[in-house]
Amino acid sequence: MNKTKNIAIVGAGLVGSLLSIYLSKRGFQVSVFERRGDMRKTAEDAGRSINLALSTRGIRALAEVGLAEEIKNVAIPMHGRMMHDQKENLTFLAYGKEGQFINSISRSGLNIVLINKAEEKKVDFFFHHKCHQVNFSETSLILQTDDGALIQRKFDLIIGADGAFSAIRSAMQITDRFHYSQQYLEHGYKELHIPASHAGGFILEKNALHIWPRESFMMIALPNPDGSFTCTLFLPFEGEVSFKTLNTDEEIIFFFQKTFPDAFIHMPTLLHDFKVNPVSSLVTIKCFPWVRNKSLVIGDAAHGIVPFYGQGMNAGFEDCRILDQLLNQLGDNWLEVLPAFQMARKKDTDAIAQLAFDNFIEMRDLVADPEFLLRKKIEAKIHAAYPDKWIPLYSMVTFNDSISYSEAYIMGQKQKIIMDKVMERPRLAEHWQELNLKQIVDQL
Ligand code: FAD
């Protein structure tokens, strides 16, 4: 195991591509096998521009391979949430302190930067190579090319970064004492589009993540560098208001006009987008162990989470950094590194899975609630007065990579108990400025 030289990564998505850079920098020979074609040569998702929120944990992992500045230059800062109510009123809620923001970034643009950098570092990419089978005792893969040919290859180490429906994890599932769970939400999502203005500018506030919270469902929109916004509608698959009940042109138009009036007027391609773009499902995937002999799963393959904290990719990038850190501490002794990695990460990825699940309710329902906004204002005031003692949960998760997800989760639970009591005080909306902040902080 000390002589590990040849490493196979399955999946050239965001995590597989970043990990290949980390490992090639350490001198390993890395081959990446991707079932799809080379995204640098194919049209981006049939013309759809999909974006993601990149935050501190992801940026730190990119910084360690020298890519943070390049990526930040093409990202759009989002300083807070812009809430749109049904009467077209807007409310802005900052994500953190002045100067703290998350970043809207193109998924394919980021992936391409990572693949290019990996190739510079002599990583070999094999596109149209689907992982068909894995043999954990021999550390070998059977790969299938598009013409159906099967190729067998042996490695010193195999890493499955092949996403939520991982072939490597599927093979682990039929090994002994492997724990696995998948939980689907009753909501699905569909991507829609708000184009740039005729002059090429942003029709909505550029530096915000827009939310149309509607209690049991919601729509969000993130800005793109070309002035457009990518919208995502999260709606139940079935029920009174659901994807199932939106079929005819009239039903779709009536629903958007009534529910998202200020977005609807800026969506000239709504009917086309709604009919052409798929409805995708949302799933939380947990499994353990992540290691079988000399094979490991990482990123969504090990921990698929729902997207409501904007952390799936950030958590996967943090996986890469932590694995690299363990290689620094333990040397290239993978028999120690792999178990240490799963022990270090499992509790943290379970914590972010739960936080992401809980945040759906906050985003679709609470952000429109005056009591929730007051709670956020009070917490921001406490944080300003005691910046090291009371860090709001969102900030711990999003802006503070020295606090692990599991520590943030536990601290968030404690803060919630204290804040629930504060919020019970009579006529708080009038008197919140007079709260004894020290007394609140001392309870933590
Ligand atoms: P993937 O990106 O899924 O990549 C896996 C790769 O493996 C793919 O290229 C796939 O083709 C390939 N592959 C699969 N099977 C095989 C096989 N058998 N053989 C060979 N190759 C294979 N995260 C954030 O941090 N911020 C956000 O704002 C955010 N928003 C999101 C919004 C939505 C709607 C969704 C669904 C997710 C969002 N995420 C977000 C999560 C993020 O997309 C994932 O966490 C991230 O893509 C995981 O990267 P990955 O490389 O592990 O998996």
Topology:
Elements: E1 6-10, H1 14-25, E2 29-33, E3 51-54, H2 56-63, H3 68-73, E4 76-78, E5 80-84, E6 90-94, E7 102-106, H4 107-120, E8 124-126, E9 129-135, E10 140-145, E11 150-154, E12 157-160, H5 167-173, E13 179-194, E14 209-213, E15 218-223, E16 229-236, H6 249-259, H7 261-264, H8 270-276, E17 280-288, E18 291-292, E19 295-297, E20 303-304, H9 312-330, H10 334-364, H11 370-385, H12 393-399, H13 405-423, H14 428-431, H15 437-442
Parallel strand pairs: 1-2, 1-12, 2-8, 5-14, 12-19
Antiparallel strand pairs: 3-7, 4-7, 5-6, 9-10, 10-11, 13-16, 13-17, 14-15, 15-16, 17-20, 18-19
Helix pairs in contact: 1-4, 1-9, 2-9, 9-10, 10-13
Bound molecules: flavin-adenine dinucleotide.
Going across the biggest sheet, name each strand in turn.
Answer: 6-5-14-15-16-13-17-20
Distance between the termini: 46 Å
The outline comes out as globular
Rg (CA only): 23 Å
The percent range for strand residues is 15-25%
Question: With helices defined by DSSP (H or I, 4 residues minimum), what is the helix count?
Answer: 15
Structural class: alpha+beta
Q: Main beta sheet: strand number and arrangement?
A: 8 strands, mixed
Which spans of ≥5 residues are poorly predicted at pLDDT below 50? Answer: none
Mean pLDDT: 95
The small molecules bound here are: flavin-adenine dinucleotide
- The level of helicity is 25-40%
Q: Could you give the count of β-strands?
A: 20
